[in-house]
Amino acid sequence: MKKFMDEFKEFAFKGNVLDLAVGVVIGSAFTAIVTALVNFIIMPLVGILTGGTDIQNLSIEVGGAKLEYGAFLQAVVDFILIALVIFIFIKLINNAANKFKKAEEVVDEVEIPVAEQYLKEIRDLLAEDKKNRNS
Fold it and tell me: I want to staple 59 with a disulfide (CB 3.0 to 4.6 A). Which of 13, 68, 82, 120 is the partner?
């Protein structure tokens, strides 16, 4: 039983499992944000543009069967809008990340004065000499 518990602890608390759990929780929260944006902001605008037509209730009767294709169309529209919103969010995040990365590169490219370079070389040589003397 102890071996089983040790194996379980090793599995459950590995970095990959914890990273996955965090990803799932954040993904759920992000899904709620995107769904709210689509349902409460974008879809009402689509409704205004289409003259208030609710495509979810569209159906056709063929013989005795009622084909409710509106729910399918609504699901397709929701998918496209959600995919578009996620694409825009990811694009914005990537653009911001690239700006931060470029800013860091600019800071890294600052030229060190020649006198300071010489001082660093002297420091490194003294440290190496001290190390050699202690050996």
Answer: 68
